[in-house]
Amino acid sequence: MTWSKEGRIFDPDGYRSEWMNSHAAVPVAEQIRGDRYRVYFSPRDGNNRSQIAFFEFSVNNPSRILEVSRRPVFTHGSLGSFDVAGVMTSWLVNLPEEKRMYYIGWNLGVDVPFRNALGLAVSSDNGKTFQRYFEGPILDRSPVDPAFVASACVFHERGEWRMWYLSGLAWTRGRDGFQPRYHIKYAQSENGISWERTGHVCIDFQDKAEYAISRPCVIKEKGIYRMWYSYRGASYRIGYAESNDGLAWVRKDNEAGIDVSSSGWDSEMIEYPFVFQHEKTKIMLYNGNGYGKTGIGYAVLYE
To answer: Does the global pTM surpass 0.90?
Structure first.
């Protein structure tokens, strides 16, 4: 694979407001009609709380933003909730009667900086607003996910719901501060709401220097599951893996075909890939420096 970077298509600094003070993290795209796409993303307000908003653009002219939501479509939870400190996009599933947004909830910790869990929000007005399906999370820490859970990719395939998600294993504390350790596991469900977890690991650490694997994005082509994700030791890079069944994966990071730039907004790290197909072209949206602080990039795949 060789991804051609077409530049940064969304810079949150150009849209500053009380609720969009910084960041445009974890993009999720859906086709509105023709060449027009909506991208849900997570900006942060002045209190560093993430929320969910969207912008729309055309794949025929990706550098031109057609619309930006005037307010968040989904915001942080109430006092004492699992997502009171912020909400972030993770995955979108379109059903005939509603849109389902699987999202990351943030809660500040006492002995560690934060704790994440996965929530579910639904929209019945075509994505203009989302409401919580439950006040609590649908996936939280458990015997197989002892520290936290976060970013997920969700498939509704042949009547079965499948999920690849970030599983938090532990925290360590060193001279540079706190460091969480997490990789990607698998869950399944009959309804997309109640999930069964066995602890099955899909993408594991490749060496001792690696400690973080996140944001799985899976597509299925010609019977093969293909996953893009973020991984890091010193800083995030985008990895790639393949599987015949969605359970046993082979890492092929050297075939990911995309890396940091020599300078600029994505020269320190690239992460949180979202890959989708438009006609005969694969497109990747991704974040650069600062975990989404510098905005969202656009790349096209030539295979």
So the answer is: yes
